[in-house]
Specification:
Elements: E1 2-4, E2 17-18, H1 21-29, E3 37-41, H2 48-59, H3 75-87, H4 91-98, E4 103-108, E5 111-119, E6 126-131, H5 145-148, E7 152-157, H6 175-188, E8 194-198, H7 201-212, E9 217-222, H8 239-255, H9 257-264, H10 266-273, H11 277-291, E10 297-299, H12 300-313, H13 316-326, E11 339-347, H14 357-360, E12 364-371, H15 379-382, H16 384-400
Parallel strand pairs: 1-10, 6-7, 6-8, 8-9, 9-11, 11-12
Antiparallel strand pairs: 2-5, 3-4, 4-5, 5-7
Length: 405
């Protein structure tokens, strides 16, 4: 991943229709079986006091001693990033640009959920639920929204405990439970049937949606296969599958420490990251550096906008807790169990380790597969044009083939 400096702006295309509160409430009133209440328009507005405190903490950063060029993000890189964040990064400009999109918060299941809702100008547009993961946010998706609204009404929720969505106050908010929550959100918005796209946690939540609501999810598009995915296996693995299982174990041993900590001690880690913006940035930026395609050009402003949202909302601990909760709801399939929704896969070369098609097809109904020439874990950010085109092609092919939509 190559970091570039300078202002990043996610422009809204003319085809986007901004959603009014009256229209949102009208759609809610037309529904009879949802728990969605108290829809309110929302603007991203971080207080000047919060930004002043952030700057003060950055200025007072105590940098680690000892070896500083291995074992994590190099010290020199982090010093440069912190300096840019403090001296050059323009949060008000990013805030203004984020607010070009239609934001709402609604109460559902006792939580206030933040979401973006952008409607297409097309009268025959399909609803598309677009799901982010960790350590990302809705910010990853902004560049892709104008492309997708050429064909879809797009809904982008912030996961519970992420950004401007409330953090659950009690245990149990797993990927499976979030899927049920988002199904209710789509009902409340008047979308009985919809397509869903996801990577990282978004892929797991999207899969749970397809498992639990196969009559409502018309199309499932993934650029990541959930780490807990375990299909039913009878007999010997193929050589390709056995190689993948070995690669996955090696990756977990060499790069999976973050996941083990977040799955077992998210609160303990949260004390440190919630108190140090430099530490928070290092923990998040490291994942973008290691999981993105080295050829991808990602503006530093995008990363710092994402990190600033985690900081301003104090949501790093609650976001990491999803690892602990979802360890209790793995996507493991027994004999005869399948995801019975048409599935499209976008395989980006630096999304690794990625299962072979035969492994995925043991439980997913794959009808569309694209091997991408470039890109990594953060597909919507690294290759928005390719990802958008693939989602559109997948859904349109389903429509042309007569799949009920």
């Amino acid at each position: 991943m190559q970091l570039t400096r300078g202002l990043w702006i996610a422009r809204a295309a003319p085809a986007l229709l901004f959603v009014s509160l009256a229209a949102e409430l009208k759609r809610q009133a037309a529904c009879t079986r949802n728990e969605l209440t108290m829809i309110e328009p929302f603007r991203v507005e971080v207080s000047s006091e919060t930004i002043a405190d952030l700057r003060k903490r950055l200025e007072a950063t105590r940098w680690p001693g000892g070896v500083g060029d291995s074992g994590g993000v190099p010290l020199g890189v982090m010093r440069d990033i912190a300096h840019y964040w403090l001296e050059t990064f323009d949060w008000p400009a990013q805030e203004r640009d984020i607010n070009r999109f239609s934001h709402f918060r609604a109460t559902l299941g006792g939580l206030r959920l933040h979401y973006i809702h952008m409607r297409s100008a097309r009268p025959d547009a399909r609803p598309l639920l677009l799901l982010h993961g960790w350590p990302g946010s809705f910010v990853e998706m902004l560049a892709i929204v104008p492309m997708l609204t050429e064909w879809f009404h797009v809904v982008i929720p912030s996961l519970p405990g992420y950004g401007f969505s409330d953090a659950p106050s009690s245990a149990g908010m797993s990927n499976e439970r979030i899927a049920r929550l988002f199904a209710e959100l789509m009902t409340g918005l008047g979308y009985d049937r919809f397509a869903v796209q996801g990577g990282d946690w978004g892929a797991g939540i999207a899969t749970w949606l397809a498992v639990q609501f196969p009559s409502r999810v018309v199309a499932l598009h993934l650029n990541y296969i959930p780490g807990s995915f375990a299909p039913f296996v009878e007999g010997e693995l193929s050589a390709e599958e056995a190689s993948f299982v070995g690669q996955r174990a090696q990756w977990s041993d060499e790069q999976g420490a973050y996941g083990h900590v977040q799955r077992t001690r998210p609160l303990t880690l949260g004390y440190a990251l919630s108190d140090s913006p430099a530490g928070l940035a290092a923990w998040i930026v490291e994942k973008f550096r290691e999981w993105a395609d080295p050829r991808s050009v990602v503006p530093l402003d995008v990363l710092l906008t994402n990190v600033t949202i985690y900081w301003a909302t104090n949501s790093i601990a609650s976001s990491m807790r999803l690892y602990l909760e979802s360890a209790r709801t793995p996507l493991r399939f027994e004999r005869g169990e399948r995801v019975r929704v048409p599935c499209g896969i976008a395989r980006f070369p630096y999304e690794a380790p990625f299962p072979p098609r035969t492994w995925i097809a043991r439980a997913y109904d794959i009808v569309h597969w694209t091997d991408m020439p470039q890109g990594g874990h953060f597909a919507a950010l690294e290759a928005p044009e390719r990802l958008a085109a693939d989602v559109i092609a997948f859904v349109r092919d389903l429509e042309r083939s007569g799949v009920p939509m």
